[in-house]
Amino acid sequence: MPEDTPPIGPDWSAIATELAPVEVLDDPVTVKKRSRDFFWYSPILNGDLRRSFGDLVARPKTREELAHCLATAYANDVPVTLRGGGTGNYGQAVPLQGGLIIETTAMNRILEIGEGFVRVEAGALMADINDALIPEGWEMAMFPSTQDIATIGGFVAGGSAGIGSVANGPLREKGNIIQLKALSMEAEPAEHVFDAEEALRIHHAWGLNGAITEVTLRTVPTRDWVGCMAGFESYRDAYAAGYALASARDGEIARKLCSVVDARIADYFPRLEDHVPKGQHLLVTLVPREHLDALHALVAGHDGTLHLSMGENERRAAKLPHVFEFAYNHTTLQVLKSDRSATYQQIGVPDPGDADAVAAVHAALGDDVWPHHEFTRGGGQIYCADLPIIWFKGAERLAEINATYEAHGFIIYDAHVNVIEGNHMQPDYRHLAWKKRLDPKGLLNPGKSLEWEKVRHLSAEEIEALEPENTSA
Ligand SMILES: Cc1cc2nc3c(=O)[nH]c(=O)nc-3n(C[C@H](O)[C@H](O)[C@H](O)COP(=O)(O)OP(=O)(O)OC[C@H]3O[C@@H](n4cnc5c(N)ncnc54)[C@H](O)[C@@H]3O)c2cc1C
User: Fold this and answer.
1) What's the angle, vertex CA 135, arms to CA 131 and CA 139, rounded to 5?
2) Cβ-count burial of 313 within 10 angstroms (0-12 exposed, 13-18 middle, 19+ buried)?
3) Least confident residue range of 42-46, 245-249, 425-429
């Protein structure tokens, strides 16, 4: 190459210098590791994403450093992928077009704990937030089962519900997100404040429309929670007990987790061997100590047996994981630890109270689909999602499984796609209008929104006007 030929693409060593004093990680192995999340749960996404890598990682410690990272990327026209703990399941934090990965985990201060709220920096780990809240008499209204390694910014940008949602609703429920602050991706990044329902403009936008710097969330009074597992001979009984528990009045049995797990899946939980007999379909829950008797009665009324009930101190002494590490997407992880040919799907149950319909769809599905249900509440209603283990036999069989669910009236929120509109979600024009305002060059997480490519030439107001039910949020 002649000496005066300009280098092809961005000059990453110059960008690394420009980023000073921000910590940068440029060792290729580290950059590759920080380019991955838990997309490998899906063999389809694994094929699509495993060779997508960023070019450089920046690890800002303050919002000023984060603003400097965004301004530097903007000046150099390079894509930016925000990253918290990298626990998302759909490659949400995978840089599809290379570029700068900004990892927020050093922006982790807990700024304020007050009556019913906590204000934190976006990179704070949720386990640390709960650890800070509990001695003050509070806890997060909900958190994902990945609380030990996932950040609050990543949860708000990529997650939806978790432990606590069967009592307090999903993240998007009114009052759960009190305020979000986000920086724009411009020559001089500006911080925007989104209060109450305005936060839905940024919530679950996959880091496409701003860099969240600070989160204020609702907290609830903490209780002496006891982790419980009950066993049942039939899945139908376990499911019916789960529905009854999810529907119980808070004064009778409060619960912050209500999961039902097929016995074949539970047999992949070796840590439980000394506590729960094999071959039992499980109801996994957390109830306050004063409601244990009522739970006993509910379980017995559905022909089940309460095998495990442990408060936090006993659990630590027994060196057992939290019961929620056998729930939500940790259930899938427990199976994947032994056998990588498993995968999963996300399915909405149309009528959570109809155990017969759940039994009927699973009878139609066959032995390669093992049920696992999570109950939640929202707007006073009970919701249920099936997150089954699926023994993967190829994309064609997966499509057949999806079609069987749909033929029975169930809704597929496809876990095997990597675009924000893919999980049975309609385009969110409020998200995209704010992307236009906060990321005019379209450099944040490029490739993750199909709809953005269709509307990016419009003004923010024109994009917003496309929202079918144009709400004030
Ligand atoms: C075993 C397992 C269990 C899980 N259980 C649950 C569960 O119970 N409930 C649930 O909802 N999810 C669950 N998930 C998914 C995931 O853990 C959660 O969504 C989690 O909160 C993501 O946090 P994170 O810090 O790892 O985010 P990341 O994976 O790092 O990022 C997620 C998305 O947020 C964006 N992002 C990150 N930080 C910022 C920021 N500061 N500003 C703007 N955008 C940002 C990223 O670009 C990406 O698009 C689970 C995943 C696994 C692997």
Assistant:
1) 60
2) exposed
3) 425-429
Cα-based distances in Å from 176 to 88, 143, 170, 392, 404: 21, 11, 8, 36, 35
Report which ligand 1 atom has the smallest distance to the Cα of 157: 34
The CB density around residue 417, as the number of other CB atoms within 10 Å, is 18
Residues 371, 242: one domain?
Answer: yes
Same-domain status, 294 and 235: yes
| CB 162 less than 6 A from any atom of ligand 1 | yes
Half-sphere exposure of 459 (CA within 13 A, CB side): 3
pLDDT at 423: 65
Half-sphere CA count of 207, side-chain side, radius 13 A: 33
Instruction: Give the domain extent around 453.
Output: 110-221+424-465
Number of compact structural domains in the chain: 3
Residues 40 and 137 in one domain: no
CA distance 184 to 178: 20
Q: Which of 108, 121, 147, 155 to mutate to test the pocket of ligand 1 (most atoms within 8 A of CB)?
A: 155
Please work out whether the CB of residue 84 comes within 6 Å of at least one atom of ligand 1.
yes
- Supply the CATH number for residue 19's domain: 3.30.43.10
pLDDT tens column, 252-285? 999 999 999 999 999 999 889 899 999 999 999 9
**Do 87 and 133 fall into the same domain?**
no
pTM more than 0.70: yes
CA-wise closest residue to 121 among 106, 107, 102: 107
- Identify whether residues 256 and 196 lie together within a single domain: no
Q: Is residue 124 part of a domain?
A: yes
Torsion-angle region of residue 342: left (phi > 0), alpha (psi -120 to 50) or beta? Answer: beta
Tokens of 199: 């936060």
